[in-house]
Structures are given as C-alpha cells and as structure tokens.
Amino acid sequence: MMRTTILDIQKMKQRGERIPMVTAYDYTSAQIADRAGVPMILVGDSLGMVVLGHTSTVPVTLDEMLHHTRAAVRGTQRALVIGDLPFLTYTTTEQAIQSAGRMLQEAGAHAVKLEGGAAMAPTIARLVELGIPVMGHVGFTPQSVNQIGTRVQARNATDAAQLIEDVLELESAGAFAVVLELIPAQLAAVVAQRVRIPMIGIGAGAGCDGQVQVWHDMLGLYTDFKPRHAKPYANLAGIIEQAITTYAEEVRAGTFPGDEHSSKMSEEALQAALAQTGE
Ligand SMILES: Nc1nc(=O)c2c([nH]1)NC[C@@H]1CN(c3ccc(C(=O)N[C@@H](CCC(=O)O)C(=O)O)cc3)CN21
Ligand SMILES: CC(C)C(=O)C(=O)O
Ligand SMILES: [Mg+2]
Questions:
Q1: Which residues of this protein are catalytic (predicted)?
Q2: What are the residue ranges in the chain where pLDDT is below 70?
C-alpha cells in the first residue's frame, strides 16, 4: 500500500474532501490510527502533557520527540507522519535544518510542524527548498503559553488581519498545510477559502479543511482538564480502570490465571526434578 504524500493531502482539499488528523505518540496507537484510515498522524509535542505529565509543552526536548516519533512511524504503513518540532529547536534556519533533518533521518517522520507566523516564513522556505515538507501552526501556539496564556486568539480586527497575513506568508513560503488552533470559526473559514493549502483546525470551527484532535482527549484518556475544543468519542480511562480493577480482584481471589493461561509438564518430569534436588 502506498504511503500518503503531501500531494495527496493537498488533493483532498482540491476535491473538497475534509481531512481528519489525530495525534499519536507510540507504535500501538499509531498502528490503530493507521488502520482506521486516518491519512495524517501528528506526533505532537502535546506528548509533554498527555504522556509525560508536564503542565505545558515547553519542557519537551527534541530527543523526546525523536524517541516517540520513531515508535509511531513503525506503527504506520499508509499515514503521513508529521513530527512536531519542540520549543527552541528552530530558533534559526540552521538550527531548524538540524532539528528537522534529525526528525526525517533519525526518526523517519515524513514532514515536520513548527509554530509561528510570518517570522517563520524564511526558515520554512529554506526547509522546503531542502526537501523537508513543513506544516505551519498559528493562532494559539502552545509553546508561547508563557507569553499568550491559553485563550482564543485573533478575536479583534488587528489580530485577525495579522493572522490572515501570517497564513498567506506561510503559504508563500511553501508550507504544505497549516494548523489553526483556537481562533474564531468565522475567521478560520475565511482563511481556508483564501488559500490553496489545507487548513487543519483545532478549536477553529467546521470551516477548516481538516481537523486535528489530541489522542488522549478524543479517547477520554486525559482527565487533568477537558479543553472546550475536545470531543471525547470514548471513555477509555473508565474502561481501562474497570479492566485493571477486575484483574486486581481476580488476582486477589486466585481466579486469575486460569488453566488456559498456564502451561503443564508431566508428573514424571516434575517428580524426577524433585528427586534431583536432594529430597
Ligand atoms: N490534552 C491536550 N489537548 C490539547 O488540545 C493540547 C494539549 N493537551 N497540549 C498542547 C496543546 C495545549 N492546548 C490547549 C491547552 C489548554 C486549552 C484551554 O485551556 N482552553 C480553554 C479555552 C480557552 C478560551 O476559550 O479562551 C478551555 O476552557 O477549554 C486549550 C488548548 C492544545 N493542545
Ligand atoms: C494540538 C496539535 C496541533 C499539536 O500541536 C500537538 O498535539 O502538539
Ligand atoms: Mg504541538
């Protein structure tokens, strides 16, 4: 089966097909997402929160991202896997080339994502020139949480106009798609109509060309907080807790393991072994 390419993703927009994307952080989950037919998987730096237990994405390192991306890539056959570049790993074009290069060469990602608007355009243009597909990310950019807090962005006219400019710059720089996070739905819809490249929303309304959800949020696995933009399609935390509770009860009661989970040897072999131990 052929791997999804950035051209396939862009064709989806041209055909008016909406694009589902989900995060995944390891082999098993990426395998499930791939089997479900999701064309793009993001190994997000949100792993700092939902996998590593930090309170923001700021502490996440490139080595941690490479470690998880390698595992996720191994789980996929069809999905395009995007590695999120973490905080302060793309502060110059040279550093971005190093970081993105490791993401593709060492971790096997097929593209990278980085946060920022017009200011990132020269860096993105150079990465694209070198053959590295880049996804942009504007609106609420979690790596700037210490500067902007966690709230809907670009609500006033000035900020909304700036966001439109930012996306146009990213498109000109050669970004193959852009994440729009936590911006008003009407603004996201207008932006999506104005550009040829897919706009992937999270908390940005139904007018985007695609959507992205964090694995743990959409499956009900992360219970520290539930962002407004997240829809729990399952309550896996509850299901898992119940399964582990039942397991613990069965171990305590001696009803697990059963014969079907165990193996046997011949009584003769056992007696012979006991004889040899000097009984
Ligand atoms: N579990 C999880 N889900 C995410 O979507 C996510 C992460 N972690 N970590 C990285 C970033 C951070 N994100 C966040 C974090 C907090 C809010 C939040 O507190 N949202 C407010 C709405 C703010 C507003 O409306 O102004 C909320 O009440 O949900 C949103 C996105 C999105 N990403
Ligand atoms: C929320 C998405 C877009 C992201 O950047 C992440 O999961 O890190
Ligand atoms: Mg991220």
A1: 181
A2: 279
Q: Give the residue extent of every domain in the chain.
A: 6-234, 239-276
Q: What does the pLDDT look like over 80-96, one tens digit per residue?
A: 999 999 999 999 999 99
**pLDDT attached to residue 1:** 72
CA of 105 to the centre of ligand 3 (A): 20
**Which tokens in the block code for residue 220?**
């009900």
Peptide linkage before 133 cis (omega within 30 of 0): no
How far CA 104 is from CA of 97, 109, 141, 170, in Å, comes to: 10, 5, 23, 21
Could you give the residue numbers annotated as active site?
181
Name the residue at shortest CA distance from atom 10 of ligand 1: 46
How far apart are the C-alpha atoms of 271 and 279, rounded to whole Å?
10
pTM strictly above 0.80: yes
Fold topology of 6-234: TIM Barrel (3.20.20)
The finding on whether 142 has its CB within 6 A of some atom of ligand 1 is: yes
Q: What is the 260 CA–ligand 2 centroid distance (Å)?
A: 43
